[in-house]
Structures are given as C-alpha cells and as structure tokens.
Design brief:
By secondary structure, the chain is α+β, with helices and mostly antiparallel strands. The protein folds into three domains: 63-171, no CATH class; 320-437 and 594-731, no CATH class; 444-593, no CATH class. It contains 21 helices and 19 strands. A seven-stranded mixed sheet has the order 11-19-12-13-18-14-17, covered by helices on one side. It has a six-stranded mixed sheet with strand order 5-4-6-3-2-7. A hairpin with a 2-residue loop joins strand 15 and strand 16 (530-533). It is elongated, with a radius of gyration of 34 Å.
Amino acid sequence: MRTGWLTDLVLGVRLAVGGSRTSWARLALTAAGVGLGVVVLLLAASVGPAREAKSERVRAATLDLTGAGPLRAREVVVSWQGRRITGLELAATGPDKPAPPGVARLPEPGEVVVSPELLNLIQTDDSVRARFPERVIGVIADAGLPRPKSLVFYAGLAPVHADGAHPAAGFGGERPRSVLPPVYRLLVAAAIGALLVPLGIFVLVATRLGATGRARRLAAIRVVGGSRAQVRRIASGETLAGAVLGLLVGVALFFATRPLARFIEVEGVGFFPTDLLPDPLLGVLIALGVPVVAVVAALVGLRSVDVGPLGHNTAASVPPRRTWWRFALLGAGSVVLVVVSVVGSTGRAMFDSTTAGALGVGIALVLAGTGAVLPWLVGRVADGLRPEGVAPLLAVRALRSDVAVPRVVSGVVVVLAGSLALQVLLGAAARSAAETALDPDADRWVLALSDRTPVRSLEEAIALVGGVRRVSEVRTYAPRGDVRALVVSTDCAEIAERLRVTDCVPGVAYRTAGGADVPAAGTSLVVGGHPWVVPPHRTVPGEAAGLFVAAGADPVLDAVPPAQLVVVGDPDQGFGDRLLAATGRVDRAVTLPTTVEAGQVELFTSLRSGVIGGSVLLTLLAVVGLAAAAVDQVWERRRHTAVLVANGVPPRVLTAAALWQSAIPAALGIALAVPVGLGVAWLVSPPDRFRVTWVELTTTAAPAAIVVLVVALCTLPALRQAIRPDGLRTE
C-alpha cells in the first residue's frame, strides 16, 4: 500500500468522521475537551490586548494637570463596603467646557453623571443614595469606563469646595498607577501557576481519548498491508480531525460566551466584551499549536501499542515510566520556592514583578511535577499490590497496563493541590485583613478629613445621626515630615481613651514609654506658619507614637485644621453607614478607613469561595475525561469481561473492580495533593499566617471521592453492554 502523505492524512480524517456512532461519540468528546481548553487559551491570549484597551480608556479619562485650563477639578474617593467609588467634581472656568469621555456634557452643581453600576447602587441602596444627593442627569458610556462594573461618577463642583480644586487643561493626561493592594500580585502569581498546569493536562488527555479504537483500526490497516509509516500518518490525520474540530468548537465557544464578560468581575479585574480579542501572534500560535500537540500526543501514545499485521497489543509493550524527569520538575519548583521565600522573601512578590513571576514559575513546576509523579506512583503501587479479593485483583491488574486513567487523575490532583494552596493563602490574607480591621474599641469611628473639609458643617451633620455620644477633633503635625516625632492635639476625652490617663486637663502633654522619640521640651518648631515651643511632658505606659497635647489651651495647635474626627457611637455597621451618609451630604471625600479593611475581609472570603468553585468546575471537566477513559478501558476489555462473566464471575464483582480501579488512583492522588498543597502554601505564606482548617482539607478530599463515584456510575452502562454474550464473539 503505497500512498502519499496527503492520501494517508485524508484517510485518517475519513476514519475519524465516517465511522460508526461510537466513532462520532469519540470525536465529539475529543472536540469538546480540546474546545474547552482552547477557550481558556484564547482568553489568556486576550488578556494583553484587553489590558491595553482598558489602559487607553483610563488614560483618556485622566485629568490633564499639566497647566491652567478651562476646568477646575477635585478628585474624590468614596468608600462603600470596602469598594472604592472614584469620581471628579468639575467646574468650568470659561465658555469652553470639555466633557469627560462617555459624558455628553459637563454637570453643573447639583448634578451628577454616574456609571451604570453606580446608578444601580443608588437606586437600590439608601446609604449610597445619601452619598449622592444630586440629580442624576446621565449615565457614563462604555468609552469612559475602565471596566463594565466600574463605580465612577462626575459631579458638579459646589462653590464651597472650589478652594480645594485644582486647575486642569482637560482630559487625556498621564495614566495613573494601579491602586490594587500589593498582596494581589502574590495571589495572582499563585493562581496562574495553579490553573494553567491542570488546563495543559486536560488538553493533552482530551487529545488521547479514543486511543483504543484508533489502535484497532490501525491494526486492521496493517493486516491489509499498510506500513508503520503509513499507520503513523493515518493516526496523525485521525487525531488532527478531532483537534481541528475542537479548535473550531473552542473559537465558536469563545466568541459565543464573550458577551458574558460584561457581567463577570473580580475586584477590579473585568473587561468589556470588545476588549477580549486574542493577540494575533498568540492566536496563530494557538491555532497551530493545538493540532500539533494533539498529533504529537497521539504519535507518542503509539509507542505503547504494538500495531502489527496480526493485531494490536497494549499489555506487552507499555514503556517503563521514567522517574528522573518527574521528580526533577518537583525538585526544581521546590528549589525556586525555597529561594524566593528564604533569599528574596515572598513578601517581595507583592511589590516586585520579577519575584512574583519566579513565584508563579515555582508553583507551576511543583504542580506539574505532582501531576507527572502520580502516574509513576500508581504504576509502582499497582506492581507491588497483591490483593486477596477478586475485585481489587482485577482492578490492580488493569492499572498495571493502564495509562489513561492515571493521567486524567493527575489533572485532578493538580487541581486539588493548587486549590488547597490558594485556599490557605487566601485564608491567611483574610486573617491579616481582619486583624488590620479589628478595632479593640468597636464603638469608635475614625473619619479621615481633607484640608478643605468644612469641619463645623460636618460636625453639625454628625450631631443629627442617632446614637452619637461624642465627637473629638484630632489635629496632627509632623515636624519636617518626620512621623516618628508626631504631635497630636485632641481633647481630654480622646487622650484619656488612647492613653488610659485620668489627670488630663487642657494644655497638658504626654508621651508613651514604648513610643518613638519625640522633640525635647523647649524645642522650637513652626506649626501652621507660627512659632511653637514643645511643652514639658510626662511619660505614661503604652506604645502609641507621638506627643499628645490636650487641646483647649494652645492657640497655635488649636488653629491647625483637624485631620480626623473620632466619633463614639453605636458599634454596629448600620451606624457606620448612617454616619457616612450624613457626612456625604457635606463632603463625600470624608472616608472611614476601617470600612476598607472590612471590605478586604469580605473580598478575600469571596475569592476563597471562588477558588473552591473554580476547583470544582475544573474537577467536573476532569470527570468528563476520566469517565471517557474508563469507558474506553471497559470497551477495550469487553471480550475479557464477557469471558469472566461466562465463567461465573458475578457482575457486581466487575462493578466493584471498576470502582477500585478509580478509587486507588484517587486515594493516591489525595495522599499526594494534600502535602504538596500544604507545602506550597507554607513556603509562600508568612509563617505566622499559615493555618489549615477542616474546610480546606474537606474541599480537597471530597471532590476526589465524588470523582470516584461518578466515574464508577458512568462505567456501569458500558459494563452492562460488555458482559452480554455478544461480547464473546471474536475474529
């Protein structure tokens, strides 16, 4: 049989698409698996262009503060349940009124233009509505928003805040730097390493589905005179059909699901559907790389199949599983993590992109090594086990020559190990944020003020809030910018609360024994443009930094604008919402810092739930591949199974054997995933934050148990078909 390359490839394609219903089912399953992987790869290839498009919109909406112009602007950041609502209060100084991108006209005082997400909050939440009492005159279009769920507004500048505004030439200034918390860099590096590895394993396994039927067809071709080279070319064509179909399915799914991007966002990471367009070079690499990887995987798989003119045999030629490269991956990743955590410290990953990249590479290598070690471990355990029962004996004998099931389970193990590591890291981040947000005096609400905040009007608004017991003004001054020599002026009630003193009177000064050094008594300073002499002070127990001076007797300090207002009131969050609503009517730039940290706790908790959901989703995708591989194994051994039943082996024993065949790799996978996941988390997280809960361990073990049960149930129909007397037929 002498045919050219093209003829052999076409024959392989015809065998893939022109066979029986079983061939069509295998082709559809392969296309679905490859398609899901292609969707994720196209999404990853779209991140760069999406970020560029987002950055361009941000740049276009950024104020141009390079010189005087027709605008005066005041930047405002409003905190609401840990979320940042950013905006500008604008006023035109002449006939020229340049409007921001996505806005029809410049709002006047008493008017506001908001983003769609902020409009929804204003309409549904009274506390947000109280912060924006102006009349909403429009909605910002997509061209003026960084992302679909942005909380952005443009309001008219009130005359009372005009002194605090800056002149602006218009819009399109220099792009601002990111305001995301630094710890996100660490978490993103860990997440990338934990998600890409199982995706790669899943794509490789998807291209290998239906290998048993392919081997039988190739053996038949050898019977009629086909050469080994022709068999490889035909196998390439057959695999190429599934890969190309999967590529088309993936592209179709990507563009079909792209509109959903408008509704998906994770704390500042979100894009418009039009932003998600793959980079042309990466798109070409995906289009060419996926079929090539599929063909190479199929050809490598033929090494374990003796395709000869007398048939095919998989049991006699399973190549030995080489060990060195598997543990080399695991060891290399561990070395990278140890070097990053010991030499460079993982804390640098929060600020240094190079360290964060090295951390992601280390995690990816460890997880890839874990996935590579599991098939070898399953093979070693199967070779050493000598069970007494018939069902586990059949399962162990099947595992000795099985390469499909351990490979799919390795993907599950990588998902579980990565999920466990991310859960522990997010748990540590949530505890850190909770400790930061924790206030030993929950009834004290500290409001941060700007230099131009109308304090008297603000205090009058606060007095109308029910539950307020005390309001204290806090003035601070740092000589020559040295915060260690901070001077704090406030009333005696606040000083008594902070320093636990009982003899406070106006004018008296204190410092704490554990605080930083303060200027010596008699030191001359300039405060607010006026000379001021540091008064004598006494030392009290404590660690609060600064020199505390009781207000009411020093006109120089009393003339400094307050930097904070400490409000003592009810400890519940509802009081905080009412407090911010009242202050927002006067100056919405007033912030409550504790709400930011509290929102971080909620953020990390929600991300933790998202990691659990993502791991469950990836596990379900792996279940599809594992079930397909298990059914394929049952179909391959259908004659052997039918012979066993004909000789008196009960069907329930075969069912139990199928359960054991999935349970053994799953149990080994859990035994491997737990220490690897905990080890990665221990190396990456700070030692004092490392803590493991039963929830994290349960969410690691439970999916593996569910996988075993689901796969066993999926194999039952194929098993019932295999034990029929028709299975005894042979040629």
